[in-house]
Structure formats: C-alpha cells, structure tokens
Design goal:
With 559 residues, the protein is mainly β. The protein has 3 domains: 3-141, Cupredoxins -  blue copper proteins (Immunoglobulin-like), CATH 2.60.40.420; 155-333, Sandwich (Immunoglobulin-like), CATH 2.60.40; 352-547, Cupredoxins -  blue copper proteins (Immunoglobulin-like, Sandwich), CATH 2.60.40. 8% of the residues lie in helices and 38% in strands. It has a 6-stranded mixed beta sheet, with no helix packed on it. Strands 11, 13, 16, 18, 19 and 20 form a 6-stranded mixed beta sheet that branches. The protein has a 6-stranded mixed beta sheet with strand order 22-21-26-31-28-29. β1 (23-37) and β2 (40-47) form a beta hairpin. The longest helix is centred in the N-terminal third of the chain and has 11 residues, at 169-179. It is globular. The chain starts with a helix and ends in a 20-residue tail after the last strand. It binds 2-acetamido-2-deoxy-beta-D-glucopyranose (12 copies) and copper (II) ion. One 2-acetamido-2-deoxy-beta-D-glucopyranose binds next to β1.
C-alpha cells in the first residue's frame, strides 16, 4: 500500500463515525490478578485484569492489531483460534511452532486480517497450561450492510465455558509431567468465569445472569475455553437454534442440548418465549470412556424481566456424562448452510490421502512414579517441542530443527479401536520426534483421524491451525478405505476448525492447503497436547507474492 494511503487510513480511523474504520487496534497487558472462586483466593494470569479476558470485535475484512505486553513471570503467546491467518502465520501464536514466546517484559504486536469468516471464535494463550485463565471471545461481524442468513436477533451475548482449578494450573501440569501420571482434574466448570448458583460455594452474586425480555430473541455466542473437557450445554425450558459453528454458517436446527468441545464455538438463538421466570443454564462434561473427569456442573440463570426475586429457578437435568447418543444426535445434525452466498467448497479430488491414528501410549521414564510415563501420539510419533520456532526455522532455512518425514499412515496396522477388548498392541511405547508433513501449495488433503484404544479409547477434539476443513465422514471401529468413502457427504458437510474424533472411531476431513506456512494440528484437550498428541504441516509457497508467506514482522520474538 502507498504510504500516503496508509497515513490517510490511520488519520481517518481516529474518526470512525465518519467512515468505516478498517483497523481494530487492541492493547493486551498480561498481568496477575487475585481472584476468588470456590471460596478460595489465588493469583491468576489475566489479560487486562479480566477473567474471562476482553472480547475482540472485528468486521470481516478488518485488519486487527493486538499489542501484547507480558508483565508476568511466565513466557506467553496468544493464539487467535480459528482465524485463518492467510499468509500471516507469524501472528498465529502457538509457542515454538510459529513464534518464540513473548518473554517477561517483552511486547509483540499480532497483525492479521479477517478474510472470508464471520461468527464467533476465541483467543487463548498457546503455551503450557496458561490458557486456563488467558482466554476470551472473538466476534466477527459480517461486512457492513450484509445481513445474517437468519432472522436478526434482538441481542447478542458472549457465553464462555471454562474450567477452574483451586491450585495453580502451572503447578498441576508440572507435577503431572514429573510423576508421569495424569494431571488432577479441575475442581469446577464455569460459565463466564463463575461456577454458578448451584455451586457448593456460590459467590459473586450467584454467577452469570442473562437478563431477558419476553418475546425477544438472543444470540448466544458460546465458546468452550475449557482445558480438558467437552461440555454439554442446556437451558431449562428452552430450545436452542444452532446457526453457526467455528465462524461458518450452518443449516439452522433446533435442539435442547448442545455439545461443544474445547476450541469449538457455537452460535445459537434462544427465544425468550416463556413470559416470566428464572431458568437454569447448565454446562456439564461429556466423557464416554473410563477417563476421570471433573463431574461438577456449571450453572447460570436466564432471568426474565419483571420476575420476582423470590421466584424459584426452573432447573434442568444435565445429560449423563457418557451420553453418547445425545452427543451423536447433535453432531449428526450439523451441516453447512451451503447457500449461493455461502457455498461449501468441499475438495472433490484428493492429492494427499492421510490416515492419522490419535491416542495414548506409555514410555519408560526412570524418574517417574512407576518407572514409566503416559504419553500420546499421532501415527505413533510423540511430538517433541523444539526450542526454536518452526516457522522461523523454515523461513530462514535453519536446518536441524525439524524433519519433513512425518508418516502419512500408521507404521503398524492393528485393530485401532481396541474393540473387542484385549486386541490393542501389548507394546504401548511410542517414537518421538519433531516431524512435519510437507504439502505443496493448494494441495487437497483427505485426513482420516482414527482413535486408538491403547490404554483406553477416548474422544479427541482435533484442531487444525491455518485452515477450515469439512467433516466428510465419521464412524466407529477401523476406517475402511474401500467401503466408508462411499458414504461421504461431499455436498454440505459441516465446515469447522476443531472436530471430535469419536471414542473408538474415526472422522474424515478434507481441506485445501491454500495457506503457506507451518500449521499446528493437535488435540485440544490440553493434557493430550502436553503428552505429545500434536504435529505440524509445512505448506510451501505457491507462485508469486500472493501465494507466499509474508516476511516476519520486525518485533517477532526470538529464542
Ligand atoms: C494503536 O494504538 C496504539 C496505542 O493506542 C498507538 O500507539 C498506535 O499508533 C495505534 N496503531 C494504529 C495502526 O492505529
Ligand atoms: C494478591 O494477594 C496477596 C496476598 O494478599 C498479595 O501479597 C499480592 O500482592 C496480591 N497480588 C496481586 C497481583 O494483587
Ligand atoms: C500489518 O501487516 C501488514 C502486512 O500484512 C502491513 O502492511 C502493515 O503495515 C502491518 N501493520 C502494522 C501496524 O504493523
Ligand atoms: C493433585 O491431587 C493430589 C491428590 O489429591 C494432591 O495430593 C496434589 O496436591 C494435587 N496437586 C495439585 C497441584 O493440586
Ligand atoms: C423443543 O423442541 C422439541 C422438538 O421440536 C419439542 O418437543 C419440545 O417441546 C421443545 N421444547 C421447548 C421447551 O420448547
Ligand atoms: C463426582 O465424582 C466424585 C469423585 O469421583 C464422586 O464422589 C461424586 O459422587 C460425583 N458426583 C456426581 C454428581 O456424580
Ligand atoms: C503404579 O503401578 C501400580 C501397580 O501396577 C498401580 O497400582 C498404580 O496405580 C501405578 N501408579 C501410577 C501412579 O501409575
Ligand atoms: C531459503 O531457501 C530458499 C530455497 O533455497 C531460498 O529461495 C530463500 O531465499 C532462502 N531464504 C532465506 C531467508 O535465506
Ligand atoms: C511405536 O513405536 C515403538 C518404538 O519404535 C514401537 O516399539 C511400537 O511397536 C510402535 N507401536 C505402534 C502401534 O506402531
Ligand atoms: C526421545 O526418544 C529417545 C530414545 O528413546 C530418548 O532418549 C529421548 O529422551 C526422547 N526425547 C523426549 C523429548 O522424550
Ligand atoms: C487451487 O486449486 C483449486 C482447485 O482445488 C483451483 O481452482 C485453483 O485455481 C488453484 N489455485 C491456484 C493458485 O493454484
Ligand atoms: C522462555 O522462553 C525462552 C526462549 O525460548 C527460554 O529460553 C526460556 O527458558 C523460557 N522461560 C521459561 C520460564 O520457560
Ligand atoms: Cu485428545
């Protein structure tokens, strides 16, 4: 852009009323704050002393600038979860993947443009377990004058689901890493930062209260920012109409229960059609395996205007923890809107056919409790975090940081799902390495994510950075490459950035590698990421500057 145009834009943006301002300029100060929950106080890491952190608002096509200054003792990075970051991988945020951390006392300005996306996403720290308290919403409004493809709601509300530990989460994960066993589960779930009125230790005025007026419609922008748990979400006495997930429009459908995995977002319309009263909102865990979870239900209230404070709250029964049929019903209802304005651009041909097993393992560890440690892997490779950023190593041709030999298929074919029991490999060891899978620009990829039953089958919410993908298929047991593709939905599959791989089953996704850079793929259960359930794609530049990664910004942190 010509310099004078940039100066003009800057000046014009001082008077946003005069003209559409295209630059959104935010300042994030990462600071400690003492916070009381569950009757105990502890210092937590926050952005601008807020928990959850501030909501980032932008319109499609806006340029977003966020200057992050680190005032705490931990290294910090921030990830803009679901933002495509077209050619701006430097602003994606996962530590040691696209950048070195912002060290104590340092600043870094994330600079990206929102292209072709509208809806709700989230930002969160992407280093260690700091995202437990370092997270917030991202609201992307459609371009000015472009309506939603559903009736305009009267009001919009960001609803962030989270997980709360009484202990310091950095201590929780360090303790687990040293002992080699699973970290402690959380002590409560939260809705907009509070465990809610039914918590044994309710505080802060009984939790989050959504004040509604009878007859009006509210769009809930619901975000699962929990570290390790998929959550059901319900409102007593009300149905919800899902209209968008992961910042892509869906075919609207009505349900009484939502399922949201960590990293996923859902926009749902709630019509206040009850006249009056108080109705409980509940967020409770979904876990259809033997793995321990925090079974506390987080609550909030929908409160109709004019309702007496003495009115009792209508409660709702959360689904059982292992309610697989309720989860499946919700997942199977999700389809892309696939309208003329918002077509589903599903790749119809496939250049790279990949099968990745995702699951757990056990490796020897002399210093650990039982001489072994729990690990996790993709295609039997437990990812080893480098000490230098992969994107920088790639851009500057620095060798010795990573290899590009990540296997496109599992090294051993077995009964992946472990069903019938006892058929999983007796040897549960994994390999380790910082191995990437290389893709030419614009290659089309079909990736089947296959759960393993090693230790136990489990639902893994897998998140891909830099791309949206389409979920073309899903099933139980071993994926069958001869039979299963016949049932793929290539017309209107849901488009998203995070997808649950069913316990003992598989999910098939397709995407086009039209974004050059290094892009992280990992389980969004933070415990599994820590254990090594992660890898990265390296996407080469295409032809010319419009298909090439931009040069790194001058303030990019170094290691
Ligand atoms: C963003 O805000 C900061 C602090 O208010 C200011 O110094 C900077 O010039 C702004 N940048 C742009 C591009 O508006
Ligand atoms: C938190 O509280 C402790 C004990 O009261 C105090 O020493 C500390 O300075 C407080 N920290 C912050 C960040 O307010
Ligand atoms: C943000 O990045 C764009 C390139 O994508 C660049 O033109 C612009 O100057 C950058 N803005 C700031 C404030 O650094
Ligand atoms: C984790 O749980 C164990 C057993 O209850 C307890 O001894 C330990 O202190 C907990 N760790 C943290 C960091 O809270
Ligand atoms: C929710 O929708 C279902 C199915 O359409 C219907 O049976 C039920 O009565 C509705 N519940 C409420 C509270 O509107
Ligand atoms: C939650 O789990 C604890 C510990 O396993 C158990 O004692 C308690 O009964 C469970 N509560 C509910 C509501 O299931
Ligand atoms: C250690 O091994 C024993 C015996 O197999 C088992 O009971 C125990 O749960 C293990 N402890 C840990 C921390 O894995
Ligand atoms: C890295 O290597 C490629 C191919 O050899 C070359 O085109 C590019 O200029 C190199 N980049 C840097 C920063 O040295
Ligand atoms: C994984 O790799 C380890 C170490 O090479 C090997 O012992 C084990 O058999 C492999 N397991 C699978 C399922 O590929
Ligand atoms: C990777 O595996 C090797 C050989 O088993 C082992 O010596 C090394 O400690 C492992 N590295 C990590 C980070 O686990
Ligand atoms: C990328 O691939 C699509 C088809 O998948 C094609 O339509 C498009 O022209 C390609 N773009 C480039 C720049 O190669
Ligand atoms: C912070 O990051 C730097 C650069 O990677 C590293 O040298 C340092 O050990 C890290 N500090 C902590 C506390 O992890
Ligand atoms: Cu997982």
């Amino acid at each position: 852009m010509e310099n004078w145009v940039r100066v003009l834009l800057l000046v014009v943006c001082l008077f946003p009323a005069m003209v559409e301002c295209r630059v959104r300029n935010y300042t994030f100060h990462v600071v400690m704050k003492n916070t009381t929950r569950l009757c105990s106080s502890k210092p937590i890491v926050t952005v601008n002393r807020r928990f959850p952190g501030p909501t980032l608002y932008a319109r499609e096509d806006d340029n977003v600038l966020v200057k992050v200054t680190n005032h705490v003792k931990y290294n910090v990075t921030i990830h803009w979860h679901g933002i495509r970051q077209l050619r701006t991988g430097w602003s994606d945020g996962p530590a040691y993947i696209t950048q070195c951390p912002i060290q104590p006392g340092q600043s870094y300005t994330y600079n990206f443009t929102v292209t072709g996306q509208r809806g709700t996403l989230l930002w969160h720290a992407h280093i260690s377990w700091l995202r437990a308290t370092l997270h917030g919403g991202i609201v992307i409004l459609p371009k000015r004058g472009v309506p939603y493809p559903f009736p305009k709601p009267d009001e919009e509300v960001v609803v962030i689901l989270g997980e709360w530990w009484k202990s310091d989460t950095e201590v929780v994960i360090n303790q687990a890493t040293q002992s080699g066993v699973a970290p402690n589960v959380s002590d409560a779930h939260t809705i907009n930062g509070h465990p809610g009125p039914l918590s044994p230790c309710s505080s802060q005025g009984g939790g989050f209260k959504l004040q509604v007026e009878s007859g009006k419609t509210y769009m809930l922008r619901i975000i699962n920012a929990a570290l390790n748990e998929e959550l059901f979400f319900k409102v007593a006495g009300h149905n919800l109409t899902v209209v968008e997930v992961d910042a892509t429009y869906t075919k609207p459908f009505t349900t009484d229960t939502l399922l949201i995995t960590p990293g996923q977002t859902t926009n749902a319309l709630l019509t206040a059609d009850r006249g009056s009263g108080k109705y409980l909102v509940a967020a409770s865990p979904f876990m259809d395996s033997i793995v321990a979870v925090d079974n506390m239900t987080a609550t909030a209230t929908v409160h109709y205007s004019g309702t007496l404070s003495s009115t009792t709250t209508t409660i709702t029964q959360p689904p059982p923890q292992n309610a697989t049929p309720i989860a499946n019903k919700f997942i199977n209802s999700l389809l892309s809107l696939n309208s003329k304005l918002y077509p589903a651009k599903v790749p119809l041909t496939v250049d790279h056919n990949l099968l990745f097993t995702v699951g757990l393992g056990v490796n020897p560890c002399a210093t650990c409790v039982n001489g072994s440690k729990v690990v996790a892997a993709i295609n039997n490779v437990s990812f080893v975090m480098p000490t230098f950023s992969l994107l920088q190593a790639h851009y500057f041709n620095i060798s010795g940081i990573f290899t590009t030999d990540f296997p496109g298929n599992p090294p051993i074919i077995f009964n992946y799902s472990g069903n019938p029991p006892g058929t999983s490999p007796a040897n549960m060891n994994t390999m380790n390495g910082t191995r990437l899978y290389r893709l030419p620009y614009n290659a089309t990829v079909e990736l089947v994510l296959q759960d393993t039953g090693i230790i136990a089958p489990e639902n893994h919410p897998i998140h891909l950075h830099g791309f949206n993908f389409f979920q073309v298929g899903r099933g139980l047991g071993n994926f069958n490459p001869n039979k299963d593709p016949k049932n793929f939905n290539l017309v209107d599959p849901v488009e998203r950035n995070t997808i649950g791989v069913p316990s003992g089953g598989w999910t098939a996704i397709r995407f086009t590698a039209d974004n050059p850079g290094v892009w992280f793929l990992h389980c969004h259960l933070e415990v599994h990421t820590t254990w090594g359930l992660k890898m990265a794609f390296l996407v080469d530049n295409g032809k010319g500057p419009n298909e090439s990664l931009l040069p790194p910004p001058s303030d990019l942190p170094t290691c």
